[in-house]
Write a structure and sequence with these properties.
single chain; alpha/beta; seven-stranded parallel beta sheet; 10 helices
């Protein structure tokens, strides 16, 4: 179709609810007499309509519901990312079974999640609550490069955890991971390949709305040899376990008489986000010192760019990252020893844990004071 003189980025809004479509159009494109930050070129009422209008209107970004008739959101993502890849922002129910479906959507190629307003919210209240988060998510999506993202076409077979995982003691090594836009897809590639049996725990900060992080942890748990859980305040840090920071809570580690434990809080945001990887990385450096590895994955901004997690630092490379902002900031800060494609990071982490564990057993490692 002919190009418009309006230079604003273009958006296609897909949702089976006429009310939600109207709210999203008002948020993104501006209400009556207003001009919003984006130009909504079309709306779609179901997945089939969305796929057709992607080809017809060629939008820069798509906002997509998951529960739609004819073709649901997951099916639409599969078609769009195979035929005409572009950034997709999932706008989904904020609680209940829909959250697991949203995590699967991120594996298929969507880059952001925004929680839908609760069903009992009025249009005006929903608009006020949704606007800042949705606009920010669409802006992040516009910065994403999805051209090289491979679709995870089918879910991997569930992994059975060996019974001895339940008997693991306190971790003496730690891996701290930071991720944002594109992170759930990257974590689905990384975490299942991280090793067990190294006496290490993994601590993950993924920028994600509340209510979705538990589903992310459950999804990663089903795919991984590690046990993966949403972190709880005061939980002991156990070997062969990965802890995902809950949405809207900073996660740190602190020493205790029985070994390191997790602390959660809602102190102010850092770089505009909560949880923030900077808090986690600094606390891991203080508690685990040289017996730690920091990993910075795809995402916009500078979170995770603190010097490193106290030990080695690894960053995802530009070619495999959906957004290279966070890894690049970590490189520029000087806390990165290696910049690697996503598929090579797990092996590097395994090698670092082996080396740092050996040094610690020989008496050359330890926590920082």
């Amino acid at each position: 179709m002919p190009k418009s003189s309006d230079a604003r980025p273009t958006v296609l809004v897909a949702d089976d609810s006429a009310l939600i479509r109207r709210i999203l159009v008002d948020v993104l494109g501006g209400g009556e007499g207003e001009e919003g930050p984006f130009r909504v070129v079309a709306t779609a009422r179901d997945g089939v309509d969305a796929v057709r209008k992607v080809h017809q209107y060629d939008p820069d970004v798509i906002t997509l519901d998951l529960e739609m008739p004819e073709l649901d959101g997951l099916g639409a993502i599969g078609y769009i990312m195979s035929e005409s890849p572009r950034p997709i922002v999932v706008v989904s129910a904020h609680a209940g079974p829909g959250t697991a479906t949203a995590i699967r959507a991120l594996e298929l190629g969507a880059v952001e999640i925004v929680a839908k307003p609760p069903p009992d919210a009025s249009g005006r209240a929903a608009l006020a609550g949704l606007a800042p988060e949705l606009i920010a998510a669409v802006r992040r999506a516009l910065a994403a490069d999805v051209s090289h993202v491979k679709v995870m076409a089918r879910p991997p077979a569930p992994v059975a955890h060996p019974p001895e995982l339940a008997l693991r003691g306190r971790a003496t090594l730690a891996v701290a991971v930071a991720a944002s836009t594109g992170g759930p897809r990257a974590l689905a590639d990384l975490v299942p390949h991280l090793p067990t049996g190294r006496n290490a725990a993994v601590l993950i900060v993924q920028h994600m709305p509340p209510k979705f992080t538990r589903s992310l942890a459950e999804r990663l748990d089903s795919m991984s040899r590690l046990r993966v859980v949403e972190a709880a305040d005061g939980a002991p840090i156990v070997a062969d376990t990965a802890y995902v920071a809950p949405g809207d809570y900073h996660m740190r580690v602190r020493p205790s008489s029985d070994g390191p434990v997790i602390t959660l809080d809602q102190t102010p945001t850092v770089w505009g986000v909560r949880p923030a990887a900077d808090h986690l990385f600094r606390s891991v450096a203080q508690v685990f010192g040289a017996k730690s590895v920091g990993v910075v994955l795809t995402g916009m901004g500078r979170d995770g760019a603190v010097h490193d997690a106290g030990g080695g630092g690894v960053a995802q490379d530009r070619d495999s990252a959906v957004i290279y902002g966070m890894p690049n900031a970590a490189v520029q800060a000087g806390g990165v020893d290696a910049v690697l494609p996503l598929g090579q990071i797990a092996d590097r982490v395994a090698a670092e844990l082996t080396r740092r564990g050996a040094v610690a057993r020989a008496g050359g490692g330890g926590s920082r004071p």
